[in-house]
Amino acid sequence: MAKKLRILIVEDVDTDYALLESELRKAGIPFVSKRVQTKESFLTELKDFIPELIISDYALPHFDGMTALILTKENSPLTPFIITTGSMNEETAVECMKAGADDYVIKGHIVRIGPAVQGALERKRREREAMQADEALRLSEKKFRMLLEQASDGIFVADQNGNYQEVNSKACEMLGYAREELLRLNVRDLLSEDDLRLRPLRFDDLRQGKKILTERSLKRKDGSLVPVEISSKMLPDGRLQAIVRDITERRYTDQQMKILSSVVEQTADCVVITDREGVIQYVNAAFEKETGYTREEALGKTPRILKSGEHDPRFFKVLWETIL
What we know:
- The chain is of the alpha/beta class and 324 residues long.
- The chain contains 13 helices and twelve strands.
- The protein has a five-stranded parallel β-sheet, sandwiched between helices.
- The protein is elongated, with a radius of gyration of 39 Å.
- It starts with a strand and ends with a helix.
- The model is unreliable at 317-324 (pLDDT under 50).
């Protein structure tokens, strides 16, 4: 059984009310109606009846259609509203439509009420869907913004020409710019000429759906450079996203490790590094010379290999037998 449409009808003339209901039935519209004639009863039924459609006479002795329309817009803006009248000039019709009426029907052509109702319902359906889509988009953007701000890395979103459209607080902090300043820049503005020459931007690859991981140096607002690792991809909406990580500390650590490795390799003392289970991860040149084991033979083993006796590792024999 089809769901009945709740229609609130503002009409003071019995015959007009009866004719209106008759035409609605002829149009094949299943409905249940409530009839009111005053402002007070209209407001009551707006709350209690919760109409899905309102049809109002333009002029009543104690009420009028324009007031009913205003009250509807204030209390139930998505409810379709149709005005009926005995006669209506073009100026009045325009006034009604500007005020928000979905349609108007002259009583002498009341047969139009069916198509008018169907059209008004369809317009409101599209309007509700558009509002729901806008709300979903707003919530999605809010969630996106929240995720951006919670990220520990800088996040940049640009159009396909490289113009920044969105950045998070970490990106601003990393480069020393205010958000509004970064949004006026292009990707190329943050790269040196040497960087661009050695590693050209690969927008075409991104547009083809490729993900790119690269290391570059970005220019801060004060002109200094910050080494970064950039992971780039194209978002579903066609924009380009870059997740940027400051690798200053990593670069420093790598340099220190290279220095330490050089020292360890040159020392005359044997150096062995194991994991927590005792598996050898590293040995230096002095170890190879003293024990006779090559690095390839030692890596992945435990120091117990030194008790095999194959190379008579006298230097370590007592130490390993004491520890293991």
